[in-house]
Amino acid sequence: MRRGNVLIALVLAVVGGLAVTFAVTPFGYFPQGKTDRLSGDETETAFLPARFGVPSSQQ
Fold it and tell me: How many angstroms separate the CA atoms of 58 and 55, rounded?
């Protein structure tokens, strides 16, 4: 009887782990939406002066 209970507990733990893994892991490809953020090295220097009138750090 003890061996059966241990086996059932082990199987339930494995099945529960698989269920959590499948629930958390997204399947398929989900493309990122477009954002209004700039990218690259000049992100701060391009955005801040144009938007807020902050002097540029480049001279």
Answer: 9
Q: How far apart are CA 42 and CA 21, in angstroms?
A: 40
CA-angle at 31, arms to 18 and 29, nearest 5°: 35
pLDDT in tens, 16-42: 999 998 888 777 666 666 666 656 555
Q: Where are the alpha helices (DSSP H) in the chain?
A: 2-24, 43-52
Q: What angle do CA 6, 8, 13 make, to 5 degrees?
A: 95
Contact 22, 14 (CB under 8 A): no
Secondary structure class of 39 (helix, strand, coil):
coil
